[in-house]
């Protein structure tokens, strides 16, 4: 039987990028770039002020203090987006706004906070250019000046094919005015549940039936990584209906079948999959929960057959489907992050299969990670996933873990936030 | 001047939930529940099998081994969703599928792997019910049986107002057939840039202008936490145009103004904000980058005025806007997660303001977190955010950090994945 790692390797070997599409910048977040992007301009286009203040010659400020300010003559008022009207000579200053071009002659900028204009009335009117400014800070050369091309240099590659597009990359794309960008295509994904015992969310209540939760946890797990899957509903336990639903599902890049493939369950499932041209690569994985997890493929479609137990289904999505989808989407970082923790309460385990125990992670004394099982590990108890925020990774060789022992823990929450700002050490 | 913490407190005090709306289950992920949800059924509705196998009386399996299996008479075939046709008496077994009801008389289930049916032909036909099954595992009472209500108990609260909706919660909602669910309303958010120096992404190229990246980084940072903001474009540097754009922006729950509020910049901005009925609560924060960060409010709208430098803008969104939006959306966990790390390369710093240094985080020897500055911390260099994955939190009191010193680090990537599965300790 395949280990978790072996099963992941088989699945990833069958999971390849699907080609390229173009998306507008406001839909690029969370995708992976499929082209290199070069800077289309120098930015700043010339040396500009980094502050609101006065462009000066640094030598003129030598010895300036609050008690003994130097007095300079204001000769210009340069706004961002405008052009200097004159150069700055010795004994002169040009008022300058953040982002405005530094005039010829000036080699530094004094912050407005380190100055006082002698006349404040009509500060922006040309008539006042002959007013003076007191400056009480000494300036090193180049101070508060951003050099041409410091942020972006014309022709430089600013983003590469394969880069994940985060907010900073969106900003860079905007900066080089890429309104449309080539990204790897998202997979189309269909979710199919199977079994006469299931009652779908819109069906009338039947006490004997089991509510179909799995289609919706799988849907949400995929939504959480940016995929919008289609829920195909429930295939009933006849070869004809299953075939009809499988045919629909095989139109997608990825078909996820929930339930119906465990050993001995509905003998028609396996032959039906074969009839439909699906080559199954494995039927089971040495894990708990998730043992009856199968994977197959056609020319076009990857087929995941998940266990019917809701927790097992969720764990298999995290361990197998998510990494495969991430690879298809072009990411190189495929797996949920893990951290080291110490066991908060001893747990027993059976040897032979890797166990993904639902658990919670907390900070113990001296900020150590402490992981504690949520209790019942029955794979039918979806509430155990509600109560968990991590999976405790108990190796296949383990017969249990003692309190205080170290263990690796996998985080499940995709977008991590915490309760307190916690800014200091 | 307010510290970062003080500024956060002021902003959060003005950030309140906006009321409740109903969303369909397939759009519930990432929202916060605004109602308690109770189980509408017992699940399982009665005792059911946890495996495919045989429902038996455990006493009948005493002493069973592979060499000396016990032989039981098969009297029924119980599928999930069906009802047992007869009870199990001593010496009898009923074939049973996962999720099928355990028949009267039986008190345990033997896995199909621990059995062999004497006749395999026509296993599911009624004619074969008098066939026998060899069982070679001893069963404890209750084995592989899920008890009525073990997963969900009728009337129990399965999710509470205030719970963040993750995939497991979506599953629970599906299980209790909540097709629509009450959640806290998302804020409507408008993003406005200001300044004659800006060139928008769709405008013709002008070498003298600065590309408007900030509207798009802010957009993407909000998208990353599930908000779909509206980009209003650029307010030009006249009171009339600014007023017109502000009027538009004040129709939203949140207005984010990028640039245009630094000291001395465009004297008309402050009076215009006042004219529009916006009460400003602070104009600056003791931080680097992000110093000229202002916050105000009207009766209806929270107004963030972000610094014009792209990195400063991004940092202020993470530290101030994201927590506020999370609070408005009903979350209790508001802040980006932080971890402890050791400094990989000494950095100098000026006292007086908390510094958010762009940096990268790597695993050093023995899995220690090592944080290294990306180099230039100029707040105009957006590429420094592209190259960073964390912010190194240098306290206001620090004059620098030495290699090997401990420091707190804030993670910026909302959805954390890693390159390798890294499942073992």
Describe what this molecule looks like in 3D.
- The structure is a homodimer of 425-residue chains.
- By secondary structure, chain A is of the alpha/beta class.
- The first copy, chain A, has a 6-stranded mixed sheet, with no helix packed on it.
- The first copy, chain A, has 4 domains: 4-17 and 187-328, MoaB/Mog-like domain (Molybdenum Cofactor Biosythetic Enzyme, Chain A, 3-Layer(aba) Sandwich), CATH 3.40.980.10; 20-43 and 156-184, Molybdopterin biosynthesis moea protein, domain 2; 48-146, Beta Complex (Molybdopterin biosynthesis moeA protein, domain 3), CATH 2.170.190; 338-411, Beta Barrel (Beta-clip).
- Chain A is elongated.
- Chain A has 7 helices and 28 strands.
- At the A-B interface, helix 1, helix 2, strand 15, helix 3 and helix 6 of A face helix 1, helix 2, strand 15, helix 3 and helix 6 of B.
Compact description:
Two copies of one chain form a homodimer. Chain A is α/β, with parallel strands linked by helices.
Low-confidence stretches of chain A: none
CATH homologous superfamily identity of the largest domain in chain A: MoaB/Mog-like domain
Report strand % of chain A. 25-35%
The helix content of chain A is: 10-25%
Query: Could you say how many structural domains of chain A there are in total?
Result: 4
Summarize this structure as a short list of keywords or feature phrases.
homodimer; 425 residues; alpha/beta; Molybdenum Cofactor Biosythetic Enzyme, Chain A; Molybdopterin biosynthesis moea protein, domain 2; Molybdopterin biosynthesis moeA protein, domain 3; six-stranded mixed beta sheet; elongated
